[in-house]
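FAQ: What does the model actually see?

It sees only this:
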Amino acid sequence: MSGGRRRDEPPHPQHHAVANGGAAGRGSVWGKALRSDSAWHDKDEFLDVIYWFRQIIAVILGVIWGVVPLKGFVGIAVFCLINAGVLYLYFSSFQQIDEEEYGGTWELTKEGFMTSFALFLVVWIIFYTAIHYD
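And it is asked to produce this:
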């Protein structure tokens, strides 16, 4: 075993922080996300917040659309407007960031959009089918 770590040696503590997704720093990220006009030194942190807010919105709207029951293009169009609109208001008014630092308004608006759209469709279909399908 040349140059390798022996099997009986425990891994270094700093490797655990990366292996578990960096759980030690999550509280501060979400704290900054919920405070107005926070300073974002790490651009990827802010993009992660945008991504996960989109997923939360997708689940909430998917449940609402499935229960109400909305159908067709109107449901999809309203989801797109709400999803893009809420996130635009979040990063432009609530966080007041400079969009140009992140590649412009369009880059922030589309960050994680297709993933949230797919999640929205899955949740919408599951709830609609479970509640309204005969």
